[in-house]
Predict the 3D structure of the following.
Amino acid sequence: MKLKIAQLPGDGVGPEVVAQAVKAVNAVCSRFGHEVEYSFALVGACAIEETGLAYPDSTHRICMESDAVLFGAVGDPKYDNDPTARVRPEQGLLAMRKSLGLYANLRPVETFHALVHQSPLKEELVDGADFLCVRELTGGMYFGEKGRRDGGDTAFDTNLYHRFEVERILKLSFEYARQRRKHLTVVDKANVLESSRLWRQVAQEMAPLYPDVTTDYMYVDNAAMQLIRCPKWFDVLVTENTFGDILTDEASCITGSMGLLASASIGVHTGVFEPIHGSYPQAAGRDIANPLATILSAAMMFEYAFGLMEEGRAIREAVAASIDEGYVTEDLAGDGTARRTSEVGDWIANRIKES
Ligand code: IPM
Ligand code: MN
């Protein structure tokens, strides 16, 4: 198969971790006989420096012309403490999601047995946890009307949802639940928010169409608690954009390191595959960041963008082997045994080629 992949490394540790994922992609392509063609584009702070825009048209064109986008991270401390900045790196990511129609963000939380001792939670609570967070990605407060009034002293963000947006994300979630352990939890704040009541109403209308799936409803504050009390209870969790942003950072801790959590953003046009850890500016250029989340995002790319399940599995097996052998970066390693980002990338690529 011929694979057209756009590399958008972005800012911070993005370029380093994407480079390791590319090694894994190349290894898989040579082992399974696929031809891969890369293009490169700017997004985030680096794009602002070059072009004045966080997601320039040229980048959008490259994404549209590709079959998948491998994305690193955006963000730069320079903008974080400047609420008056007119263009921000994060806008690049939001514009990319919106213009590619990426309404579903899939964030699987899988635990690795060899790492459960790293979790801030008790091992017995965590070991075996395996659930999928489905976060709505192009609606809600992130994109609803926002602004200031009263000369700037009043501010608002609108949590707007249309029925069709709720229906399509719930449909995906029911279908994923069907392929998994047939348990869907719809997370909302329907005791307070009108938008949440629409979500719950639509979910209750759709649930009878999936009689094989057990559907339950949970308020987001309770969900934040249950995720750390009994993570193994969850199978598929679906929620709106802002709640999903917050809950998935929380969920990422369960496994022991945020550097392990991969994600896929899918929808209308080209899918984007990215780690959830962000730009981690303190580590940028130091060859210490954990590349596993990005490498696992490449595995999701094979599975979700190309339907190449064997190839995805080959990457996952190599990642699991590196963890089992303790060939990992400093966030996961014991004293004195940490490997560099690039070493872990090389090790995994070799492992893929040799298996
Ligand atoms: C994420 C990030 C983004 C978000 C930021 C960088 C805009 O936190 O992908 O979770 O809030 O969606
Ligand atoms: Mn986030």
User: Anything to note?
Assistant: The chain has a mean pLDDT of 96. The longest helix spans residues 14-32.
